[in-house]
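Example 218, ligand zinc ion.
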Amino acid sequence: MKILAPSILAADFSDLSGEVAKIERAGAQLLHFDVMDGHFVPNISFGPAVMRSLSGRTGLPFDVHLMVEGADRYIPEFAVEDTAFISVHCEACPHLHRTLELIRSKGANPGVALNPATPLCAIDEAMGHVGLVLVMSVDPGFGGQAFIPGSLDRIRRLARMRQERGLSFLIEVDGGVTLENAPDIAEAGADIFVAGSSVFKAADPAEWARGFFAAVGQ
Ligand code: DX5
Ligand code: ZN
């Protein structure tokens, strides 16, 4: 099953609940929150208060992507009832195992994210402790960037590692997803597709979503 997770970073913040309702009607299955602190990434987006403002207002589970330093102190605030996944960057977590267990203890499924130049072996010991591996296909910090083509091979290799080790984490691709590259990404083995600008900037997000699901064969 392929999952569409629109990133609200690309939404019209002046009408967040309306934007979320649009993509929910369009068939999205997750809502991706790109949390940025201006330290781990050169941009600041929003904090838990924005996410909480949507809690209980949508049927979409929350997929939280923490692009922050010192993630441990924020995890409890993002672990609300609607939160399905909380992903942290392996590059920003010196005590990654402890952080993943903290996420789990707060009732969310832990995920680990990798920047485009971080080798897959960086999560060799962690991939057995996560429900999600987030493969960044752009450099984190901003929406609207171009998909890094080498990401396809990374997704293929990760999917092979998952199979060889008998693991069942989901593979999430994050950044620069379009209707044009979605089929190749699906073929490579991705399960969850984060899309920001392509879906929220589309003239008709519902039509875009229909095109997406057709493109990935669902
Ligand atoms: C970038 C974020 C991505 C990004 C996706 O740091 O993690 O989720 O917002 O947006 P698009 O689809 O516009 O690349
Ligand atoms: Zn993201």
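Summary: Residues 151-164 form the longest helix (14 residues).
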